[in-house]
Design brief:
Number of strands: 30
CATH architecture of the largest domain: 3-Layer(aba) Sandwich
Number of helices: 35
Radius of gyration: 36 Å
Structural class: alpha/beta
Distance between the termini: 107 Å
Number of domains: 4
CATH superfamily of the largest domain: Thiolase/Chalcone synthase
Strand order of the largest sheet: 6-5-7-9-1-10-17-16-11-12-14
Largest sheet: 11 strands, mixed
Strand content: 5-15%
Helix content: 25-40%
Length: 1010
């Protein structure tokens, strides 16, 4: 009878930092090779790390440890943590934060935007870092509270939940060495009980400083410095440092979304030995055996189905025989055959990772059942003769070998804590997913690939890692796009690139070709202006890129075309879709204008569906009607009829020509006056770009007369738009407009005469007719928008980039949605435009652009932050005085070079000198807030380079630190600074002005007596 799988839990994400390996892939390769990953330190390295010399020189000191490289580095900016707060935080917790982040990314979950109720179950070893800071004696009553919040076990889980915005239960779990698997058990129960829908189990075990151990006769630590579980030469355990995290979901949920699980948790069992053992520290065979049986019962499987056991495996004289005996008995009674179960012991590779040991063993077991490879037991020579071998279901593998055990592949993981809390977990290989059918014969589609990071250096590392991964593994491009768009946090520094294949994306990332980079504004996205171009930008097939790239565009275009006469709609449909449609026919005004309107309005509609909502609109010539329609001035059907009529009327006007000039309004008018020719200004587009229009003969004569006076370029138009030659179209347009309902705009709308019409203002219908003939003042329209919306981003919605160039000339940030530089009919140009918007911080709904993809595993955040060690925890130089036994006391930290020297009115030691009186005569002047505030900010936050625009909260400050700042200001200045004022005046400049206002004017010092 098949098992009931409704209680199974999937492991959807994994991350870890373990000794001897840069990443999990390298760690797994090392385990399969049977490598010992511990480090033997030399004397100088230990002394430099702060280990007391008398301890290093003790003949019983064993300088071996499972060393974790770069354990003092921290990506504090990623978590919005100030440098000072990062220094006070135990490196264990810092690494747990990073591992939690990367585990969620590995599960293709946005670490900051998960909509799933997520619980956190965390455990860490006792904090040597906190001990070191306290022993240093440099913590005052306030900073010791900071140190406790960043190091004490009580705050581990809740701080992770806070930093990652996770709303499920947050529990710190402490049961010594078995803590992390007990945390796993609690997370499984919470998922099954509906307390959360996703769970993070994260654990750390790290000594500070990382060193060796003092061997004690009869103790559990190895004299040789080698941990050899179940071996005849085993002489004890070696410590190690490591951090691990797994993401859990109910199996049914995991199979419907997210990448393929690493494996499945079938059952867990937890108990305690009680008093039925030799002593508190002694293990109990009965307790361990009962925990294994409880897990098998919970999993509803028998011992005959288990092929691998990841043991607690300490390599101690008492622990090994008891564990071997208990496991043998439990599995034999549950039906396992002799020699059926291969035994592993991670401590032989990495040393004992303390509170993280169980979770590290679980991750190893998951890789065993996932890949079907059983690693050897590192350093094993011969079975300990004290272990029963006759009839035992256990055997020790001596080389890496393919799985030969029962199917489906199942394993057990044991972890036993000092004091007797035993836990066992049964895991199974992930279910095999059906292979997705590829669309045969379909050309590869273009996809938008995005990356972001907290700083530019991390973004570079992310791009490099992604490129290597794409080259090595060649995943589906659609899946890459989906995972990076929906399974990663959208951070401040951003990059976007497009591609059809993994190789193409990797190549473009490596060369930088087509890669767009930008930064999200600190205070939110800039206001967005949609700009719609006029006639001349059209091209055959111009709707194709939009249709390929913009979800909702085809439907919006069909609705728009339905507003035209059937025959016109049919021709428009062909012209917009077919790149081979005759270009000369599309250039006819009666076709070009409705074609442009249809594409522009449909694109604007589709953009709104992607969350791209304008703060204002502007159009050039014909584009003004599209802008008015988007602003709510005209109904789409009315606008379509107006555009069609406008095109026909202008087509019937006398043909003419237009000439673009590289000069502004005043010079253009002077050139026209000096030439004496019958041309007139048609458009003033920028301070260095104008257009003149007139009859073919007049424009030709003017062009010849210019003779190099100014750069001139003939435009590809059939008529002299915005000139007297268009006058016949004005009255009929006005008559049509008298029958159209015109409303006040719903958002700011810049008209072609340069006027900004604000929401609620009245609109003259006849103005559309007059402006068809009058001079376009696009430069003035852009200036009005820039004044109304400082820092705005202008998105050109239509084919080409003519308006983008004009916006650039007006010092506005411009983005062409379809630059015309891509392959005809390609979505690349539109996706690049959308990617550019996203890099600038605009709220583009990327998930709608990658619906064809599925979440997969991709490289996570490349954590390599700066080294952060609190001065209170720094190593004390040799000979600098006595330290507590085993724990060196730190030397006082020197003041950072950027911190101002003590100001007048303050003691040399930095202690408060009491209230500062207003100076009289030769009295010492009070502290200058412009000097005092930066110093106090540095003390509280740790940042050294501060400007007046620096934001206290964006630099990692919070309301608690604001109260500390107020206290320090009161101590140093003798005035009470209101908390509310500091909260509102959150910038450095704002707080300086606040304090200056409270102090009042400071008199100039009196001149010295002659």
């Amino acid at each position: 009878m098949a098992r009931d799988r409704s209680l199974d839990i999937a492991v959807t994400g994994v991350s870890g930092r373990f000794p001897g390996s840069a990443d999990l892939a390298g760690w797994w390769e090392a385990l399969k090779a049977g490598r010992v990953l511990t480090t033997r330190y030399d004397r100088q390295r230990l002394v430099t790390a702060g280990v007391p010399e008398h301890l290093v020189d003790d003949p019983d000191f064993v300088p071996v440890h499972g060393h974790l490289d770069d354990a003092d580095r921290f990506e504090n900016a990623l978590f919005r943590i100030s440098p000072r707060e990062a220094e006070m935080m135990d490196p264990q917790l810092r690494l747990m934060l990073e591992c939690a982040w990367t585990a969620l990314e590995d599960a293709a979950v946005d670490p900051l935007g998960s909509r799933t109720r997520t619980g956190v179950y965390a455990s860490a070893s006792a904090s040597g870092y906190l001990h070191r800071m306290i022993a240093g004696g440099l913590l005052d009553d306030l900073t010791i509270e900071d140190a406790l919040h960043g190091a004490a076990p009580d705050f581990l889980a809740s701080l992770i939940s806070y930093k990652l915005n996770l709303t499920g239960p947050a529990l710190a779990v402490q049961t010594a060495c078995s803590s992390s698997l007990v945390a796993l058990h609690l997370a499984v129960q919470a998922l099954l009980n509906g307390e959360c829908d996703q769970a993070l189990v994260v654990a750390s075990g790290m000594a500070y400083p990382q060193a060796g151990h003092l061997r004690v006769s009869g103790g559990i630590h190895s004299a040789s410095g080698h941990c050899r579980p179940f071996d005849e030469s085993a002489d004890g355990v070696v410590a190690g440092s490591g951090v691990g995290c797994v993401v859990l979901r109910r199996l049914d949920d995991a199979l419907t979304e997210g990448p393929e699980p690493y494996g499945v948790l079938l059952g867990t069992g937890v108990n305690n030995d009680g008093a039925a053992k030799a002593g508190y520290y002694a293990p109990s065979a009965g307790g361990q055996q009962a925990a294994i049986r409880a897990a098998l019962d919970a999993a509803d499987v028998d011992g005959a189905s288990i092929g691998y056991l990841e043991t607690h495996g300490t390599g101690t004289a008492i622990g090994d025989p008891i564990e071997w005996s208990a496991a043998s008995a439990a599995f034999r009674e549950a039906g396992a055959r002799p020699g059926q179960i291969a035994v592993g012991a991670l401590k032989a590779n990495t040393g004992h990772l303390d509170n993280a040991a169980g979770l590290a063993g679980l991750i190893k077991a998951l890789l065993v059942v996932r890949d079907g490879v059983v690693p050897p037991l590192a350093g094993f020579t011969r079975l300990n003769p004290l272990l029963e071998s006759e009839g035992s279901p256990l055997h020790v593998p001596t080389r890496a070998a393919p799985w030969t055990g029962p199917e489906p592949r199942r394993a057990g993981v044991s972890s036993f804590g000092v004091g007797g809390t035993n836990v066992h977990v049964v895991v199974e290989a992930p279910p095999v997913r059906a292979t997705r059918p590829e669309e045969e014969g379909a050309p590869p589609a273009e996809h938008l690939i995005v990356l972001s990071a907290a700083d530019g250096a991390a973004l570079d590392r992310s791009a490099e890692r992604l490129g290597r991964h794409l080259t090595a593994h060649a995943p589906r491009t659609a899946d890459v796009a989906r995972t990076l768009a929906t399974g990663r946090a959208a951070l401040g520094e951003r990059l976007a690139v497009t591609g059809r294949s993994p190789a193409e994306v990797a190549e473009r990332l490596a060369r930088g070709a087509g890669v767009v980079r930008g930064s999200r504004p600190v205070h939110g996205p800039a206001p967005l202006v949609l700009a719609f171009p006029g006639q001349g930008s059209q091209r055959p097939g111009m709707a194709r890129p939009f249709a390929e790239a913009l979800p909702g565009f085809p439907a919006a275009l069909a609705d728009c075309l339905a507003s035209f006469e059937p025959e016109l709609a049919r021709v428009l449909g062909s012209a917009l879709d077919d790149p081979d449609f005759p270009e000369a026919e599309l250039a006819r005004t009666c076709l070009a204008q409705p074609a442009l309107f249809a594409v522009e309005y449909a694109a604007a509609t589709a953009l709104r569906g992607l969350g791209v909502v304008p703060a204002a609109v502007v159009g050039h010539s014909l584009g003004e009607i599209t802008a008015a329609c988007v602003a709510g001035v005209l109904e789409p059907a009315d606008a379509a009829r107006l555009v069609a009529l406008r095109g026909r009327l202008m087509q019937d006007c006398t043909p003419g020509a237009m000439l673009a000039l590289g000069c502004g309004e005043s010079e253009t008018r002077e050139l026209i006056r000096a030439s004496g020719l019958a041309v007139e200004p048609a458009a003033f587009n920028s301070p260095a770009a104008s257009v003149v229009a007139g009859s073919h003969e007049a424009v030709a004569a003017f062009e010849s007369w210019l003779a190099g006076r100014v750069h001139a370029r003939r435009l590809r138009t059939s008529h002299a738009f915005h000139s007297a030659l268009i006058e016949p179209a004005v009255a009929p347009l006005g008559e049509e407009l008298s029958r159209i309902a015109v409303r006040a705009p719903e958002l700011p709308w810049a008209t072609t005469d340069g006027r900004l019409v604000l929401p609620g203002e009245g609109v003259d219908p006849y103005g559309f007719a007059e402006r068809a003939r009058s001079t376009v003042r696009f430069a003035q329209a852009l200036d009005a928008l820039a004044a109304h919306l400082p820092g705005a981003v202008v998105l050109e919605v239509g084919p080409g980039r003519a308006l983008s160039a004009l916006a650039d000339a007006a010092d506005l940030t411009a983005v062409p949605l379809a630059s015309g530089g891509g392959t005809p009919g390609s979505a690349r140009e539109v996706l690049t435009g959308l990617g550019t918007l996203w890099t600038l911080g605009q709220p583009v709904a990327l998930d709608a652009l990658c619906a064809a993809g599925e979440p997969i595993r991709l490289p996570g955040y490349p954590c390599a932050g700066p080294r952060r060690i609190a001065p209170e925890a720094a190593a004390r130089p040799a000979g600098a005085g006595r330290a507590p036994a085993g724990v060196p006391a730190p030397a006082p930290a020197p003041a950072p070079a950027s911190v101002p020297a003590p100001v007048p009115g303050q003691a040399e030691t930095g202690a408060a000198a009491g209230p500062v009186p207003v100076p009289v005569g030769d009295a010492v002047p009070p502290a200058d807030p412009a000097l005092l505030l930066p110093r106090l900010w540095h003390e509280l936050l740790g940042h050294e380079e501060l400007t007046d625009e620096a934001d206290f909260f964006l630099l990692g400050g919070d309301s608690l630190l604001v109260t500390r700042l107020a206290r320090k200001l009161h101590t140093e200045l003798g005035v009470k600074v209101p908390i509310r004022g500091l909260l509102l005046g959150r910038t450095l400049g704002g707080q300086i002005e606040l304090v200056r206002g409270l102090l009042g004017p400071v008199p100039e010092p009196a001149a010295a007596a002659g």
